[in-house]
């Protein structure tokens, strides 16, 4: 599925996200900048922090467990329902609407914010009802598995995958950035990320985060 080249000839960039994650949101805004300066096309897919962590809840802080139980399932279920009922093309715009309200506007992942995001992109209000239903959990788990299988279980969201030189996908977690680079800085980070990710045996560059997400 993900390896197919778009009809427009642009390089496909598959991006897995959970709308709840502010760091995935930052990376996604960077990817939209990359689309402006490199010949790529982002294809949006869901993954789930709730699914990712369901087998290790006992190891997590109580506050994070509560967040997963009470907030994590709803938004991603709504996105999957929208995709299943209205097609892949609605995923990116709906993610933008949700993320803008959750993160930039500070509304958080509330039912009211989800309902408003659906209205923002012209999707039926009834989709909000899927937040509390497992109707499309099979599809949600399949999308999550497709992304996480490319990088392994010890990462989070986002996951990005691009075609490699040998035709196989090169996938990685991140990059984690704040604020989202723009213009030539976005291009430089993209080129550098692809360079290191393409090296066999390369696994990780990391440093301590000294500030939280800057939504601009």
UniProtKB/TrEMBL annotation:
Superkingdom, natural source: Bacteria
One Pfam family hit: Rv2466c-like
Protein's UniProt name: DsbA family protein
Species of provenance: Streptomyces parvus
